[in-house]
TrEMBL record:
Keywords, in A-Z order: Hydrolase, Metal-binding, Zinc
Protein name: 1D-myo-inositol 2-acetamido-2-deoxy-alpha-D-glucopyranoside deacetylase
Residues annotated for Zn(2+) binding in this entry: H27, D30, H163
Entry keyword Zinc: yes
Job of this protein: Catalyzes the deacetylation of 1D-myo-inositol 2-acetamido-2-deoxy-alpha-D-glucopyranoside (GlcNAc-Ins) in the mycothiol biosynthesis pathway.
Annotated catalysed reactions: 1D-myo-inositol 2-acetamido-2-deoxy-alpha-D-glucopyranoside + H2O = 1D-myo-inositol 2-amino-2-deoxy-alpha-D-glucopyranoside + acetate
Gene behind the chain: mshB
Co-factor requirement: Zn(2+)
Length: 308
């Protein structure tokens, strides 16, 4: 579905009718693994423009496709360019038209896992000056003027340095974007109405524990308690559950398969969808950290719409 041209003023809907939703993620694949169903859901709405900003190209990733193994950082160091193409294919699968890299593709490099030498690469995102990186994001915020921003919590959801830095840069950019004295050359100030951090309710993790208990492909390994995982929150900390329509399921699976160097066919995400059903990958959860909580439903009164 091609969107009306909102740049030349020919949009049949007035600009004020359209709503903007911004996702800030660390690596190509995070957008799909963590928020793929939500992206597909809002892209399918005819009143919402979705923008994804990814902070690095994922150059330091482990390669799960053996025939591409030599692209790894320690050998040909071509994984970043390859994951750019994976990002394009995944965006296509989700129907996402506006996807960008922070500062332009290649500005910031994947920092590798915490404590690895890649953390010290001169372009590592982990070593970026937060205000410098945030300035590029302010320009995007002031251009697309999002009502809602989605990013990670201050632990980066699971403690990866690029995820922690994506949180810091996104939150700093939201603060600077609304400051009328900050860099007027980057556009008119804009205040984002709602900000969410991605999360997973422990009740969902407990269900997965149960389903995988004893199986050889248990992604949780020898962890036996959800409280020992580096992510997950009590259900009453979650504020919002987006359950995408069934049609989003195949889109998220196609986007996952687009990220083949990162998500192998035997990956637990596929196994979970197979064991728990496609609905297990249609529900994605968030914590509202800025803005007024909207109407909700269920035992925890979770919002069902990011724009609520
Ligand atoms: C989901 C996510 O953030 N993936 C990151 C992460 O990938 C991990 C890394 O390659 C690790 O070495 C593997 O053992 C683990 O299975 C991967 O999830 O870190 C990568 C390097 O920074 C990054 O490219 C990838 O997108
Ligand atoms: Zn990541």
């Amino acid at each position: 579905m091609s969107k009306p041209d909102t740049t030349s003023g020919t949009n049949p809907q007035t600009a004020t009718d359209r709503r903007s939703l911004l996702f800030v993620h660390a690596h190509p694949d995070d957008e799909t693994v963590g928020t793929g169903a939500t992206i597909a859901h809002y892209v399918a709405r005819d009143d919402v423009d979705v923008t994804l900003v990814t902070c690095t190209l994922g150059e330091e990733g482990e390669i799960k496709t053996p025939h591409l193994a030599r692209l790894e950082a320690a050998q040909a160091d071509q994984l970043g360019g390859y994951r750019y193409a994976e990002m394009a294919a995944a965006a296509d699968a989700l129907g996402l038209e506006d996807w960008r890299f922070l500062g332009g593709a290649g500005r910031w490099r994947d920092s590798g896992m915490m404590g690895t030498p890649a953390n010290d690469h001169p372009r590592a995102f982990w070593g970026a000056d937060v205000d410098e990186a945030a300035a590029d994001l302010v320009a995007i915020v002031r251009q697309i003027r999002p009502e809602v921003l989605v990013t990670y919590d201050d632990f980066g959801f699971y403690g990866h340095p690029d995820h922690i830095q994506a949180h810091r840069v996104a939150m700093r950019a939201a603060e600077l974007a609304e400051d009328t004295d900050y860099r007027p050359d980057l556009g008119q100030a804009h205040a984002i109405r709602k900000i969410y951090w991605t999360t997973v309710p422990k009740s969902d993790l407990a269900k997965s524990f149960e389903e995988f208990a004893g199986s050889e492909d248990n992604p949780f390994g020898d962890i036996t308690s959800v409280d020992d995982l580096p992510f997950g929150v009590d259900d009453d900390v979650v504020t919002t559950e987006i359950v995408a329509e069934e049609a989003a399921g195949p889109k998220k699976l196609a986007a996952m398969s687009a990220h083949a160097t990162q998500i192998a066919p035997e990956d637990w995400l596929y196994t979970m969808a197979a064991k728990l059903g496609i609905e297990s990958i249609l529900a994605e959860h968030y914590i509202l950290v800025k803005g007024e909580r909207g109407p909700g439903k269920g035992p925890h009164n979770w919002e069902t719409d990011l724009f609520a």
